[in-house]
């Protein structure tokens, strides 16, 4: 942590002085594998490229236009055809969605205001690959306002909101994405973003690592001009650490997935609400008095447990980590092995990031009408494959709800086929996406403006000071008034009045 | 974090293999000052050498024996006089207290059992300087059972339980401590522990750094044989980092204050209960409907806020750190500046570690009967000195409760003269002390058994694996059943089945 | 259940005197206080005949068959045509819905089992007028199993589930109902239930009083054979008290709306969950940190406040009743006048049963994006009419969600046009409907079997013992084990071991 | 307050018929259900004449003056000797206590202010028999300010605060009470209050019924002039109902024990806090993670469960009443029989009002160190007598804490020997006592001013409007702002704008 004393050269974007010093708080990850175990502990909202998106419904697609966007000739009102979307005519509807999202993304709007004088991303050529939603659009247009040029593809073949893509294309963003891409389409879109005559990206914003992977594979020379990669997904971060470990990471990369603020919102605060929403929308069940077992007491598990307890459920917890286990005890939950309660519970929720936490054996022992769902990582936690056997009957009773029926008539209620409940059967609030998008924007600014040598060919966490800045940009939403240290107090505490306020190991 | 791959040589104490590898998770702190800012963020239960101890009442001292223990000739029943306590005859009463404490310190008792075969501290000569209470006695006797010889002094001139000291002396421990030592007595007792013919310590267990300081000053050569220092207080840890920074730390030291488990219990879990207890015992107030402002939303503040909210108080929070501020918002507390609510609140609680958080100006504006107290660090948070002016009248209405009366008749109710409420007006549960004592015992074992070179002349955090071990030893208290990873799962997660289960940056 | 048959003397249920005189507390509109006041304090789930029903979606109606059911010739598989439903062919789908509902209505199923020997409703001819849903079907088939003959119409022109109606018709119930009846259809259906050759009802089960009204108006002589009316809605109960007061009630009637168990579930427990569900489904908002004002702290308000507080919202309460106001204080909510917080809150929720609680003036002062909704009674609480003025623009952004836009661009988000959020934008859990249906069934049994003279031509509350019985039938759902009094204890307490366990004024 | 004078016809408070007949529901031991049952459901704070009073410590009695106050000659500074207290010289200290209490009894102070013009108790001669504490003193002096003359004795031989009694005597109140009266003293004091030349009481304020009993027995003629009795204890109320039933009640009496506001505070709000306080002060235990069984889910049980759940305990509930049982389920507690959990719990708490809820058999099966205590009624709930057998050893480890030791070494920790924990080991907050005292004052005003015929020789509940008034007088403490109905709203609801706002059966 000696870096705090560092002297840092210059930085564009006239953020308060303190921002200049961010790089010094770097946390190195390059020397060892951040094993997948690390991956398992968090659960990025954007990670799941095969999950369905309940919120990603397309609002205006009524008639099914079966022509592939790749085969269409479209131009926006300014005559540009440097984009590929489903239907440029949906732009107006998409614009309204973007405007609504802007109202709930105050931090990005604040960044835009601050950028009216200076342009911290002037000269930046950003290629991005993320979900394409109204919130992403607000991010992209913010990056534009900060001076950047952007080209964009989707990181998921289903998640694109066609209207939003149309609105972006209409306002001049080269966007290549539509809902329901084929695998081939997917890579074609990415390629159209980077393989452009007369334009070469110098920054990458990735979500899942596919874009980064593509450039590595197809255009490795491009990295010579690239100043850095910002990656927000668990999977993508994992890939970057692997590259780094293998000595193949040739530019600095920033892991924004593990930022404090983003983590708390993606996991604890978001799941505290979405567990209730996901269960209610799919089953209309009542929570009061229900017995629930939550597997895993990380941030996601903590959120689920708190919400269900508050609604009058009786909650049991399973854990493998004794420290988290002790936390569960002190928070008032009985710590059990799954086998101990599997016969009696009404709901089983997995939040472990592990695989086969709920096995066929467990499923066999559950009582009739038991609800089983996954809030954790990917779709491995419940051994859904084990249920696809001839003696069991599957009955789809609603969208995202299957009854799996045993020969004796017992049914279990499986939600989202074991995929992530909160993505499949609930929505991610704009405010959470605002945290993520702001984190991404600040990481891009930092990497782009960092003086030579601050970042090496390695994976970094977002400097704590910027993490704090993300948080502070969101406080006005709550009409929250931060206290400032007096000079005397700052001296007493040995802190800079502008932060960072905590040591790196602080646990919040 | 490359250390995880390390190959570690041998270690005594047949703990599961994994324990052997602890040292690799070392966390270096030596290269930069851990400024007092860091100190301010935690609040060790043992830190305060001048705080009064409500729980440290002496049970049997009825008649006041005014003779100084130093002037008395006392022998225990085995004829030894290598101790100095108030009254060896109180041993029986103290023994009962120790026995009661044993029942609530299951982890140490478990360690004793495991040590029946091997003696991980065989040959260890430990000199200790801590509060001398029934819980410390259980620790000392555990260290003895693990093979160590111990000599002990008190780290606070008021906190010794004379009966317990007597019981320890009676059972053969050279203890030098009594309640109400003079400054001179204090150092005399410490000296008697280390300045012994034919016995030289090879391990130090310190609480506050006074013992370490004394040896540095008086017997620097003694460090040649010392294998390590274990320090649990904020202040002592701060001193060690200063020594380290100055290049003067000549043995490895372990900072057990910042262990995850200990921190959670000392701060969050303990204060969640003691804020209620401290307020109730001193004021008999009702919590329901009261307006409270809590300054600081770290672990202590979080505990205070949660408890008071649950009791029906309306809680406001002040913060300087935007991340903690955002947490307060998401937990349902209005984030304000102190000035905004100072006129309306019924209670003001400081939990910042900062100084002059509550100023005379604030105190002037409080309403009549407002209660003011400190749960934070030391006694600096409330500017009590500013109240010692001629125009204000102080009235002591109960032990630890003063009314400070303004000329217009307004009274504020000041608790413990601004010192720590939870130490002055409440008690620390044995279970919390058990966590601390177990952490200390494992740190001693680790440092004593570490192979040459694992630890350098630096300050280390307790390896995460041992932190997890402390937690696991306390799970049986709650009849809590930990789940074990299958081989397949461990492989999937890239984890050792025995832990550690989390990366070092994990925030719990 | 043997008590139900009441061979225990004249007053089988030990109802205190006052119960018989309950009618004296009848509710008039004009002459004395606390009448509609009473109505305003509860909020029956079934009351609202004009509210839309989110859960009442028809599952199988894809093609729009425009022929009126009255013009169709339909027969069920046994050849009967004594019914009128949308499409008898949908019976199979409806049957599955009924079977699913059966699994969550354990109390009715338990009644069926107990009725295998005795038939407490043997000879009963029940005419019913309620919402026709899967849960109602379970009730009807239970009444059938208990020995009754039933004929049924819908109490709401929109709420009929056509498939369920078909399933009931298929299994032999004369049902006259479909989704989307005209006013004329509505009365025609009711008439078809009562105006039958060779069949005359002797019991009425009503929800809203329309059936009762029709018989009064058209077939007053029918009351000679009718043993009683069971009414569950606020409105229907109100009408009965009016009849009673006017001396026109010619049979005993039972007010099951005010039963303890039903009230708690309809209001407190149901709304604690549906407030979150209703807000989430319509707005996808995040609750954490939001400022909310809840108008009214009755059961509904208490449920809303508890849920939102638990989700991290900051909740303010308004009240007119000082006792409820003091409860709000002790539960940790600031008690304010609406004007004090109207500018700062993010959400306004009405739960008063009153009218014009939120006025145009309040609406004018709300901040941009403020959400306004009603959980109370009817659609009078928010003065929605005042928003239908030329200077304001209404924009329907989703089903049940309108943006009302001020000239300066400010938008407020109005949910369900001020109608009941929990009925319009959420669902009523089957478990809550099970409580209601069980209460109705027991009330029918009681009235039908009551010995001559127990009930006069008046309105009664369900005997407490039966209220307790409703509760006890639902305990097995939670694997809850009730303790039984010993003889000695019952004697000590002066209680019958089988209840009732509380005096009638007990407040739960 | 003008409503209190009620020129609103015969039944000013629109009490329903049944209220007048309330006496019929009187509480007997043998003859009909729901009598003592009633008693068991509430738990008056003042009921227990043999419970010790932790808060009733005498502040200034250091030297033990063994002379009986009856043998002393004392005069106050005005020369009066019409009192009998321990030591008139302690008056100054007592006065300060009274002044402190005044600050927390805003409702009585408000009544004093309102009484500056009118004197609603002018001419009233009140004889009182209650605990004599600072709070009672505030009540007495308020009654004085309202125009009454008072004479006062203690209702408990231990609970008198001598300094307060001295202060009252000094300011001219004829008080006859001291801490540590003998049985003979007790009745002598009461007699001195009523047996006075030239002064005859016309109102009685009683707590326990002893004063009423004494007058019945010794001075029955006195009732000719007495306008009414106000009684606040469960026991006293029970006695009044017995008198009434026997036709021997010769004046109106008001049962203030069952007032809504008083009940909520005495039971729910008070116990929610005192359960934690009582356990903490006696055992210093930590609540987090502890398993607790609470017997009984009435108001007291609800308070205990809510508090412990909030502190992280795992709480089980036992119940005999299915409605309360269902409430426990919906609030998230597992409903069990005591036997199911007795082996595993760390704490057993009784709140039933029943007897032998915890039997010797249960005690035999508890685990080592289990804590057993009673929050319910009287000292019958735990079969303490069964523990007084030769094979068990009792060890007093602290005041109010006994270890009962089984032959095999198992200990259970019995608090307060099974008497009420919250009275024995905690304190009753002044605010709760303020509610009670205000209720008493208003009841006295009502009875004293009621027009002829409003009250007959029967037992009444406090009119709801006055209950609401008690609440409203306490709202300013919380800076709580009540909303007023508009004329239009009042008309819509059929309510008087000044209340009462609820029907009598409303459950709050």
UniProtKB/TrEMBL annotation, chains A, B, C, D:
Enzyme superclass (EC): hydrolase
Matches recorded under Gene3D superfamilies: Adenosylhomocysteinase-like (3.40.50.1480), NAD(P)-binding Rossmann-like Domain (3.40.50.720)
Record's protein name: Adenosylhomocysteinase
Cofactor: binding details: Binds 1 NAD(+) per subunit.
PROSITE patterns the record matches: ADOHCYASE_1, ADOHCYASE_2
Catalytic activity as recorded in UniProt: S-adenosyl-L-homocysteine + H2O = L-homocysteine + adenosine
Stored Pfam families: AdoHcyase, AdoHcyase_NAD
Bias type Basic residues, positions: 32-41
Gene: AHCYL2
Pathway(s) annotated for this protein in UniProt: Amino-acid biosynthesis; L-homocysteine biosynthesis; L-homocysteine from S-adenosyl-L-homocysteine: step 1/1
GO MF term set: adenosylhomocysteinase activity
Cofactors named for this entry: NAD(+)
Record: residues binding NAD(+): 298-303, 319, 422
Every S-adenosyl-L-homocysteine hydrolase NAD binding domain range: 267-428
Protein's UniProt keywords contain NAD: yes
Top-rank taxon, per record: Eukaryota
EC id: 3.13.2.1
Segments of skewed composition (Low complexity): 42-61
């Amino acid at each position: 942590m000696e870096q705090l004393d560092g002297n840092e050269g210059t930085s564009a974007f006239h953020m308060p002085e303190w921002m200049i010093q961010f790089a010094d708080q770097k946390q190195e990850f390059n020397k060892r594998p951040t094993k997948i175990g690390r991956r398992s502990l968090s659960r990025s909202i954007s990670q799941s490229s095969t999950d369905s998106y309940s919120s990603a419904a397309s609002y205006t697609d009524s008639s099914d236009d079966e022509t592939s966007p790749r085969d269409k000739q479209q131009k926006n009102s300014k005559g540009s055809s440097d984009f590929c979307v489903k239907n440029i005519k949906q732009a107006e509807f998409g614009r309204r969605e973007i405007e609504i999202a802007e109202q709930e993304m105050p931090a990005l709007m604040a960044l835009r205001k601050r950028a009216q004088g200076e342009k911290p991303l002037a000269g930046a050529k950003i290629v991005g690959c993320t979900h394409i939603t109204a919130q992403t659009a607000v991010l992209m247009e913010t990056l534009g306002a900060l001076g950047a040029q952007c080209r964009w593809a989707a990181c998921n073949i289903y998640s694109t909101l066609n209207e939003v893509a149309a609105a972006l294309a209409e306002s001049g963003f080269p966007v290549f994405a539509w809902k329901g891409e084929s695998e081939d389409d997917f890579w074609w879109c990415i390629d159209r973003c980077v393989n452009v005559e007369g334009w070469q990206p110098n920054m990458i914003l990735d979500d899942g690592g596919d874009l980064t992977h593509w450039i590595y594979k197809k255009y490795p020379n491009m990295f010579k001009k690239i100043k850095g990669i910002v990656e927000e997904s668990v999977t993508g971060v994992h890939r970057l650490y692997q590259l780094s470990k293998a000595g193949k990471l040739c530019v600095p990369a920033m892991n924004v997935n593990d930022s404090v603020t983003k983590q708390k919102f993606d996991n604890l605060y978001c799941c505290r609400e979405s567990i209730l929403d996901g269960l209610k929308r799919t089953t209309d069940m009542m929570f009061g008095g229900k017995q629930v077992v939550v597997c895993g007491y990380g941030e996601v598990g903590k959120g689920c447990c708190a919400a269900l307890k508050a609604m009058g459920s009786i909650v049991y917890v399973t854990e493998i980590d004794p420290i988290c286990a002790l936390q569960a005890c002190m928070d008032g939950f009985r710590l059990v092995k799954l086998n101990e309660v599997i016969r009696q519970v009404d709901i089983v929720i997995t939040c472990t990031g592990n695989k086969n936490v709920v096995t066929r054996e467990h499923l066999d022992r559950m009582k009739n009408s038991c609800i089983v769902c996954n809030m954790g990582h990917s779709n491995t936690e419940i051994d859904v494959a084990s249920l696809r056997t001839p003696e069991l009957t599957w009955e789809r009773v609603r969208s995202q709800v299957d009854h799996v029926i045993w020969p004796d008539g017992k049914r279990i209620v499986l939600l989202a086929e074991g995929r992530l409940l909160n993505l499949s059967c609930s929505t991610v609030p704009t405010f959470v996406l605002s945290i993520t998008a702001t984190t991404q924007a600040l990481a891009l600014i930092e990497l782009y403006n960092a003086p030579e040598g601050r970042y090496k060919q390695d994976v970094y966490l977002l400097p704590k000071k910027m993490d704090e800045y993300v948080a502070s940009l969101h406080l006005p939403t709550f009409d929250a008034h931060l206290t400032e240290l007096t000079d005397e107090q700052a001296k007493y505490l040995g802190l800079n009045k502008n932060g960072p306020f905590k040591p790196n190991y602080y646990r919040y």
